[in-house]
Design goal:
With 1094 residues, this protein is α/β, with parallel strands linked by helices. Helices cover 38% and strands 15% of the residues. Helix 14 runs antiparallel to helix 32 and helix 22 crosses helix 23. The longest helix has 28 residues. It starts with a strand and ends with a strand.
Length: 1094
């Protein structure tokens, strides 16, 4: 029987582009519609189940059914963020449905409850995918057989404290995957320029040496626009790459001996295509006996070797945990058997239960792998591949736990496998995945919590405020009450509340960071109340507001759907967390401000009061800035980032590990401006050119005009002092924008757009060919045109060409927006009729004469000044409206239309392959694809690292940085890099975290400062700087230096305007050069941290 939750009268599935646009970069609209219509059953609504439901709703699934006959317990609350203590005892499925309805307020989800006593075959036939989360996986063999028999995709997950497992079975029939790695949908199309193809049995393809290629052996490619060897363009099948010869060449599986020769000095293109791949699955019964588990050791620098990864089936890589997958398989089988015998799980940190678990595990190894015991010489070694007593013990100690980060981690993986099962993209998990986070426990076993510390006390009959809330029962049984109190005293800061930031905030709140039993935490709506400094807190920082595209990737803003658009992220997130958890005990402190060097909010004392920072932002500048703060104040940093199905977590622990800024990050591919503007030969260059035009015409030029309108006299004075050509161009821009071509209505905007087409795609090209004729030779006697210099062809505007008309539509509407004029679409305005009447001036190429240029430019400049003086008529409060490219790109389709059309018209001019909208969005506009599944996994991994930070783990081997690619699937855990020694002083090593700390309890003079180094450290300072300002130098003017030596340090610092010393600043960071008084030599020394006294 189906009990409907949220219903919709018309069950029509659609895709809202502005909400799903970052997800549409990952898969197309048909894929999303398939996700929406696929019937999915989720069995088990504890924390793992609700995480999966949340992820699937955000992805766009709209045909979900929930089943759970169990009631909510206090153990569920530690990972079930929609429920609270007053819901204990209620049916988990029903209360989950109620809470989901309240939270999302979305009528198109089609959530239902399956009400029955047991799952029969007839009931299961209604579903295409079934996910099990509330059972031991070994107990699901019969249900798995039913699913296989009826071609139902079967996925199971198990959350047991610090251990998690996933099993996938996509049926008896071969499962066809359209795209195995997701590279084509999450990155720009893999296209390279071809400069030669040999005539051989196995042809060699040579590429342009601009940036090489990213192909691998076994990839398939197709060719386009190859000149001379035209036959290769017309092949009806993709060609396999046999060998990679180097970065700029490879061999293909194609005999070209009878093809025509490749045209010398020409350029064509080769592009990778994805070939369907077939995957087979075994039943759960078979896999339990002989699991498909492939482990490998891949170092940090190898983790993106896609070809190596393709050869494997399962990847959970940690070089310190060899054979851990097999050992966990046996341990989880033993746990299933233990509960079957005892009708309960092992008690926390109970040694007697451990002994029973070990005995069961040994028997399982003998039953599953009898052949391992045949060779007496290697018996122990082989048995240890599957049996590890320590693993059994730790699982037994912690299996009753129910941790929010484990639910996030497993929920993200399972949700991603659901996507694969629905749309046939990306490599499925085959078939078992095991993961443990045992290193979150104290490093020394003597510090493990005792069984007594993990016992739970009901708060209903206990007035002791030191007892833990029931919310954390599932965590207390793993870490104990003392650790829970440590978490509640933590003062963590999350910078960035995007997709990952929202998930991390949810997890930090769920594990108890900043939880305050005294119920006097700050009200996030009151900007003046920043919480009790003596209690723990979660500080959240994000200066952005909510956009439509945030709604399906950023969990905390999806409630009430569009009602949150335009609101501050931090304010909404803070209120949602408190509402969701049904208490005000979570001390969340929001800051809707940008982090800057001169901030009056984010000063030294602010950062010093924190116990750690978690970073979840995209831009490298902010990441490096926060990294510098963490180095200076020696604060732990957890850095996260994602791009589509890929992501990483990097943990920085002063003074153990290298800082984020010192670790090589992925560099963006850069293209020369000259290639972008003058001689493009790759699609990416056309994309960037289109983005450059959008910014130049509709953002930068209006901003410049507003600067002029704000202070005309000052601009004209500055203009008069500039060079001849520069002032001519600027004055011409003012005259055209505000006088000659200033639009009065939309018709004027259309005329301007039509003329801009002519200028960009015809006149400029004619002028280029006039300056550089087709028969022109270089100084070396070679043809100027050819190779990467593709010959351009001017475009003739045609009203019957949709692309030409669309250019005018987008351009005219953007122009109208700049000038505050109402715009129109093609249904409201007859563009073709108006365009047919526009007369475009005939173009005649200009022959430049350097002798006449200067006088002509000066004369034109003077004429422009006269026009500005006599013809400029605008109100004092008249200003243009520049387009904010970053904010408006997602909501103003004309911005995207303009870039896309410009890109492909430019490609037409230079005979370059066109690009689709997704490629343009990612490459030119740098919009990063997002999925909630990646964010969910990364937030789980980040929270595990927070556990270790709060445990104050001292060994670098305890911590894990990580890299994931869920398309493959691949998860790499690796030890962070050790902090490198940057300098030495008298054999004493110094890392980036080391510096001299000078605090005399008062402000001192520069001379006193220098004397401290002479007397305490035997160093004579010869030069000293702060930022870019030189405070002292031995070669400076003697009188000036003598005056500075008498100055107080704060007085000296304030004398430099660029330092902008505020009353909030607590320290100065000072760098200097020194002579060692012992050796008389110049020595490298770390900087100094000087305490200011205002």
């Amino acid at each position: 029987m189906l009990s409907s939750g949220i219903l919709e009268e018309k069950k029509e599935f659609g895709v809202s582009n502005n909400i799903f646009n970052k997800q549409l970069l990952m898969f197309n609209e048909n894929d999303l519609k398939t996700l929406q219509s696929t019937s999915i059953l989720i069995v088990g609504l504890s924390g793992l189940g609700i995480e999966i439901v949340k992820n699937l709703i955000l992805i766009g699934a709209k045909n979900l059914t929930l089943f759970d006959n169990e009631n909510l317990s206090s153990f569920d609350l530690s990972s079930h963020y929609f429920c609270n203590e007053e819901n204990i005892g209620q049916n988990r499925a029903k209360i989950s449905l109620q809470k989901l309805n309240e939270f999302y307020n979305e009528k198109e989800m089609f959530l239902k409850i399956l009400e029955c006593n047991e799952l029969t075959e007839n009931l299961l036939l209604k579903f295409q995918i079934i996910i099990f989360t509330n059972s031991h996986i070994p107990n699901l063999v019969e249900l798995n057989n039913i699913c296989r028999k009826n071609n139902i995709k079967f996925i199971a997950g198990e959350n047991r404290g610090l251990v998690g497992s996933v099993f996938c079975d996509f049926g008896c029939q071969p499962f066809i995957v359209k795209e195995d790695s997701g590279e084509l949908t999450t990155e720009k199309k893999n296209t390279s320029a071809v400069i030669n193809i040999t005539n051989e049995v196995e042809a060699t393809v040579k590429l342009d040496d601009y940036h090489g290629h990213k192909f691998q052996e076994g990839d398939y490619v197709i060719f386009d626009k190859i000149e001379g060897m035209n036959e290769i363009n017309n092949l009806q099948y993709p060609i396999k790459i046999n060998y990679i010869l180097g970065r700029y060449s490879f061999k293909i599986n194609l005999d070209t001996t009878n093809f025509k020769k490749f045209k010398e000095n020409s350029l064509g293109y080769v592009r990778q295509v994805k070939m369907p791949m077939s995957h087979s699955f075994k039943s759960l019964n078979e896999e339990l006996k002989n699991p498909t588990i492939t482990t490998t050791r891949i170092g940090e620098d190898q983790c993106e070797d896609q070809q190596q990864l393709k050869q494997q089936q399962l990847f959970v890589v940690n070089s310190s945990k060899i054979n851990r997958q097999q050992q966990l398989h046996v341990a989880m089988l033993a746990l299933t058997e233990f509960e079957k015998r005892n009708l309960t799980l092992p008690k926390p940190f109970n040694k007697q239960d451990v002994k029973e678990m070990i005995g069961i595990a040994k028997q399982i190894v003998k039953e599953l792998k009898p052949q391992l015991l045949l060779d007496n010489n290697n018996e122990e070694e082989k048995e240890n591949v599957y049996f590890n007593e320590k693993v059994i013990e730790l699982l037994s100690f912690t299996c009753r736990g129910n941790l929010s980060p484990m639910a996030s981690f497993l929920g993200g993986i399972i949700s991603q496998e659901v996507i694969k099962a629905c749309i046939g993209k990306y490599t499925p998990l085959k078939q078992f995945l095991y993961f443990d986070a045992f290193d979150c426990l104290p490093e020394e076993e003597c510090n493990f919590p005792t069984e007594e510390e993990c016992q739970l006390v009901s708060l209903e009959n206990n007035d002791d405020k030191n007892e833990c809330s029931k919310r954390f029962d599932g965590q207390v049984v793993v870490f104990g009450k003392k650790f829970q109190k440590k978490l509640e005293k933590e003062k963590q800061c999350i910078v960035g509340l995007g997709s990952i930031g929202c998930e991390i905030l949810k997890n930090y709140a769920m594990i108890g960071v900043g939880f305050n039993n005294n119920n006097n935490s700050s009200d996030s709506g009151d900007s003046n109340n920043r919480g009790d400094c003596n209690n723990g807190s979660i500080t959240i920082i994000d200066y952005k507001n909510i956009k439509p595209s945030n709604l399906n990737t950023q969990f905390l803003y999806s409630t009430n759907n569009r009602n949150n658009i335009g609101k501050e992220k931090v304010t909404v997130a803070s209120k949602i967390i408190k509402t969701m958890l049904n208490n005000n005990n979570n001390n969340i402190i929001p800051y809707h401000e940008k982090i800057t060097d001169d901030s009056k909010v984010f000063h030294d004392e602010f950062w010093e009061n924190l116990t750690g920072i978690t970073l979840a932002v995209d831009d490298i500048k902010t990441r490096c800035h926060i990294d510098g703060i963490c180095v200076f104040h020696k604060k732990p940093l957890i850095e996260t980032g994602a791009n589509g199905n890929k992501g990483n977590v990097q943990v920085v622990i002063p003074p153990l590990t290298e800082s984020f800024g010192k670790i090589d990050d992925l560099n963006e591919e850069m293209f020369s401006i000259s290639y972008i503007r003058n001689s493009p030969h790759l699609p990416e260059q056309c994309m960037l050119w289109g983005e450059d035009l959008l910014t130049r015409y509709f953002k930068e030029e209006p901003i410049e005009m507003n600067s002029f309108l704000k202070d005309k006299e000052a601009v004209l004075v500055e203009l008069d002092q500039s060079t001849g050509f520069s002032k001519y161009l600027k004055s011409k821009q003012i005259v055209e924008s505000l006088i000659l071509k200033k639009p009065n209505d939309f018709d004027d905007c259309v005329v301007w757009a039509r003329n801009l087409f002519e200028q960009l795609f015809n006149n400029n090209i004619q002028q280029l060919l006039h300056n550089f004729p087709l028969d022109m030779l270089t100084t070396s006697g070679l043809p100027f045109w050819g190779g990467s210099r593709r010959i351009p062809t001017p475009l003739i505007f045609n009203v019957k060409n949709p692309k030409h008309v669309d250019f005018v539509i987008a351009t005219a509407n953007l122009r109208a927006k700049n000038y505050g004029i109402k715009g129109y679409n093609k249904d409201e305005y007859d563009f073709v009729k108006v365009l047919e009447k526009i007369i475009v001036p005939e173009f005649h190429p200009i022959t430049h004469s350097n002798d006449d240029n200067t006088n002509e430019e000066e004369e034109n400049y003077r004429n422009h000044l006269k026009m500005i003086d006599t013809q400029l008529k605008v109100d004092d409060n008249y200003f243009l409206k520049p387009i904010n490219v970053e904010n408006e790109m997602e909501e103003d389709n004309y911005c995207l239309d303009f870039v896309e059309i410009c890109c492909n018209l430019r490609a037409n001019v230079y005979s370059i392959p066109e690009s689709n909208r997704n490629e343009i969005v990612m490459t030119a506009l740098k919009i990063i694809p997002r999925t909630i599944t990646t964010a969910s996994i990364l937030s789980g991994l980040a929270t595990f690292e927070l556990y270790k930070i709060v445990q104050q783990s001292k060994k670098i081997s305890t911590y894990n940085s990580s890299y994931i690619n869920t398309s493959l699937p691949f998860i790499s855990l690796f030890e962070p890099k050790e902090a490198t020694i940057v300098t030495r002083l008298r054999d004493q090593p110094f890392t980036i975290y080391d510096m001299f700390y000078i605090d005399e309890g008062r402000d001192i003079t520069l001379k006193e400062f220098m004397d401290i180094f002479k007397e305490r450290y035997g160093l004579e300072i010869t030069m000293m700087s702060c930022g870019t300002n030189m405070l002292y130098s031995f070669f400076g003017a003697k009188k000036k230096m003598e005056e500075r030596l008498k100055s107080k340090m704060i007085q000296l610092a304030k004398s430099f305007d660029s330092l902008a010393i505020s009353s909030y600043q607590k320290y100065l960071k000072i760098e200097f050069c020194c002579d060692d008084l012992m050796s008389g030599e110049d020595v490298d020394v770390p900087g100094a941290k000087y305490r200011l006294y205002h």
